[in-house]
Design brief:
heterodimer, A: 394 residues, alpha/beta, six-stranded mixed beta sheet, five-stranded mixed beta sheet, B: 94 residues, mainly alpha, 0% strand
Chain lengths: 394, 94
């Protein structure tokens, strides 16, 4: 697994922040500031692409592809699959993103329309949503299926789920999957402000007095591998991707539906060959908006019934922000770490229980908790839902 | 001082009703304090348009938070928004 997030570079930094409840949200720093009302985000600070990537790659890529390449390098090193090996046609690369190379697009629109000067000739290859997947496939010589999944906040879970399905079906032996997002520009933040879902102060999921989410950025990448080949080459198996569920509300573009969210969770748990009783932890979508948290709680209640009160359900978004297309990947990495360590991360900034969110959000302080299997949720604008179930490796 | 705030409130309330008519595309004759947002045909997208106009007019960012989402009718919604605009005015005046 590999990660770039507001917590820094690497999965260790992400997990430490999640475990200890350290938020990486702070004042937004932009080269071209706007008149934003919202002045906070979880940015990846001091990211120097040249410290990680060669000059040609840096010149050809938007920040979202750079994040993905850096996270992929960490994941592939951990999986002991060096670049020289070239994985060939039995390897897929599927990377989710909400809006691809948005910061390049924002910069180039400014150059063209406002500064009236020349645009970067690499504008299109940098901006395209499939760029991150392409750069990873070139980096590791993956000549099998490579593509982007763009499903807003559910992008990474869908990418991971589709990759797991390809490995499971035998179509490929390896799938490099996850998500990447680097869209923090003043215009992008403004777009979210207009939807009124950003909090001006603290993201506090499932708590009373919550007033919205905070935007983040980063990338989470996981290497999925057929169990047989992984065992044969002596790879260290961190977790089993046991189940994937996805559904579409087919109702409203921005208003989530508890039926759709519940259907997705039910599908994921059934796909894992498990029952709800086997799930010991849920990493919630938990945006901290009024409506998401009520709807997600209602959906969880449909799945877990009375047992919901006994299952830790935390949202780590106040830690790493809502990194949109990367979010589900960052959260699955946290979920896998939680399962491996037997420690559930907290929902920070939590003040007091909201009766409409009657669950155990692991308020403010993480705790030890044995996990056999866990589920990570994501629910996107467009009514697109996706959940992944992981379990301890056999 | 309290007199001017009361006067402010009434004035702001009227301006907000005007915004619901112009940006929320609500029929002025249908507007009554106890009318529910639903009965006025106000959908989430209309709320966003109205909140954007409120920000432009009064310079106050109103997120859809717990209190606002609990507003049952037009009066409740407008009261919530007026509270924030008055609070913001007082903050910048002090």
């Amino acid at each position: 697994m590999g990660a770039v997030s507001g917590a820094g570079i690497g999965t260790a930094a992400l997990w430490k922040a999640a475990r200890d409840g350290q938020s990486s949200i702070g004042p937004i720093e932009l080269d071209r500031p706007g008149q934003n009302t919202i002045k906070i985000a979880a940015q990846v600070k001091n990211f120097d692409p040249a410290a990680h990537l060669d000059a040609t790659t840096v010149a050809m890529t938007d920040r979202f592809s750079q994040f993905a390449a850096v996270a992929a390098d960490e994941a592939m090193t951990q999986a002991n699959l060096p670049r020289e090996q070239r994985l060939g046609e039995r390897a897929a690369v599927i990377i989710g993103t909400g809006v691809g190379g948005f910061t390049t697009l924002d910069d180039m629109m400014h150059l063209y329309y406002v500064a009236k000067t020349r645009m970067n000739p690499m504008t299109i290859p940098r901006v395209m949503s499939n760029a991150a997947a392409c750069h990873i496939s070139m980096r590791y010589g993956c000549t099998g299926p490579a593509f982007a999944v763009s499903s807003a906040c559910s992008s990474a879970n869908q990418a991971i789920g589709v990759g797991a399905s390809l490995v499971r079906s035998g179509a490929v032996d390896y799938a490099i999957v996850g998500g990447s997002e680097a869209s923090i520009a003043a215009s992008y933040i403004r777009g979210w402000e207009l939807l009124r879902v950003l909090t001006p102060d603290f993201c506090r999921p499932f708590s009373i007095k919550r007033s919205g989410m905070t935007i983040g950025e980063g990338s989470g990448i996981l290497v999925l591998e057929n169990a047989k080949t992984a065992e044969a080459r002596g790879a260290k198996i961190l977790a089993e991707i046991a189940g994937y569920g996805t559904s579409s509300d087919a109702r409203d573009l921005v208003r989530p539906d508890p039926e759709g969210a519940a259907a997705t969770m039910r599908n994921a748990i059934e796909n894992a060959g498990l029952g709800p009783d086997a799930i010991d932890y849920v990493n919630a979508h938990g945006t901290g908006t009024v409506i998401n948290d009520v709807v997600e709680t209602a959906a969880l209640k449909k799945i877990f019934g009375e047992r919901l009160a006994k299952i830790p359900v935390s949202s780590t978004k106040p830690i790493h922000g809502h990194a949109i297309g990367a979010s589900a990947a960052l959260e699955l990495i946290i979920t896998i770490n939680a399962m491996r360590e037997g420690f559930v991360p907290p929902t920070i900034n939590w003040l007091e229980a909201d009766p409409k969110c009657a669950l155990d959000p692991v308020p403010n302080q993480g705790r030890k908790h044995a996990i056999r299997a866990a589920m990570s949720n994501s629910f996107a604008f467009g009514g697109l839902n996706a959940a992944i179930v992981v379990k301890q490796p056999a | 001082m309290s007199g001017s705030i009361t006067q402010d409130r009434t004035e702001i309330e009227q301006q907000l009703v005007d915004l619901f008519v112009s940006d929320g595309m609500v029929d002025r004759s249908a507007i009554k304090p106890d009318a529910t947002l639903e009965s006025l045909g106000i959908q989430s997208v209309d709320i966003m348009m109205v909140l954007m106009s409120i920000e432009e007019k009064f310079g106050v960012y109103v997120p859809i938070d717990e209190k606002l989402s609990e507003a049952k009718n037009l009066e409740g919604f407008i009261n919530q928004v007026v509270d924030r605009i008055v609070a913001e005015k007082q903050k910048s005046a002090s």
